[in-house]
């Protein structure tokens, strides 16, 4: 107890900044799965038995971008080839049909088309995707509380008619990556066209079209960002009044281009928490409420339903070359974690031939299911929901962490319900890390140490100056 209490105090006092905890176990812990052991239908049948109310989030991955941001480590490839888009859409729709029984056995709560930049697809591709969903689940427009797509400001400005057609198809939410309203910060981060004027035009178009939920983001820690430039971005975005705003600490992971080259000296220091405080103050003053540690929404309109439901334990079926699926049995991918045009071609062939299967992932024990909910869902978590997965087996460890969190003012305890305080929202990622199992922490460390060593060798060959980038381990970053 005393050790955990002092450890948490040290992390808070030092202003440690772990990466945003949006999944557990993280992708870094995925390892090749034994060939033939895992059948997708069996995995989802076993998962179905764990829920009294069967529900589902559907995530569709589109990997294409027209430029690769230097800080991005997502599964993306650079392509504007419409023939490739056609073949990929055909493959994705085949995969949707192949999962019809899995989808039909559950209430479809959300649909999210992410990437990449899905907005690069043409109207005909979206029509094909939504028509296929309709074949499998005819009433999806009635049950889905959120139908979302990721876009860039310039993709909306370049094709407003195409975006309007998406609303007619059923789109309720769009995520547009803003990151900053300071042009120099955006240019240095590798974005080309999305200057402040393009961002303003995109927001104006979306509002005029009547999109229910426009989600935007800002990033703290860009190279050259100052307290003044951060305040400018926050103030300007608040004045534009999108329904949802997220604020992230910039984390350049070892598999991002900036880390591989060592050419980008970004800020990852305790002073960034002062920028968090400023943003929170401004957004609350403008009528937003805080939905999560990084996200603010207009009451009754904004928010990120799929993320909230996933944190609450609703399973997610991920389809597409770089998609992850989250179940109570196995978190898995059907393709490689390393994006390439060859991998996309292989995905298209295997989807066409109905040959996709889990190839990499993480098998979940009862203990890891409990830890997953604790890592992701302390915003509002009823611990009694975890009893059936074996909370008792690690209860003393969990109680010790919660006692330390409560003593530092990070959580409220309402009987067996746990809720984060405003201070807990601020330091949520530190608290979340403390629920990681030793097994997950070890796998993550091994993965990132391998990437660190590869990057050091690459930078040495290029004559670049070494930089130190950490993974999720607070003991490394503290």
TrEMBL record:
Q: Which InterPro entries match?
A: Aldolase_TIM (IPR013785), Coproporphyrinogen-III_oxidase (IPR034505), Elp3/MiaA/NifB-like_rSAM (IPR006638), rSAM (IPR007197), rSAM_sf (IPR058240)
Kindly give the PROSITE patterns that the UniProt entry links to this protein.
Answer: RADICAL_SAM (PS51918)
Keyword list (alphabetical) reads: Iron, Iron-sulfur, Metal-binding, S-adenosyl-L-methionine
Q: Which SUPFAM superfamilies match?
A: Radical SAM enzymes
**Listed GO CC annotations:** cytoplasm
Q: Where is the Radical SAM core domain?
A: 50-289
Q: Which GO terms describe its biological process?
A: porphyrin-containing compound biosynthetic process
> A GO molecular function for this record?
4 iron, 4 sulfur cluster binding
The answer to whether UniProt assigns keyword Iron to this entry is yes
The name this protein goes by in its record: Heme chaperone HemW
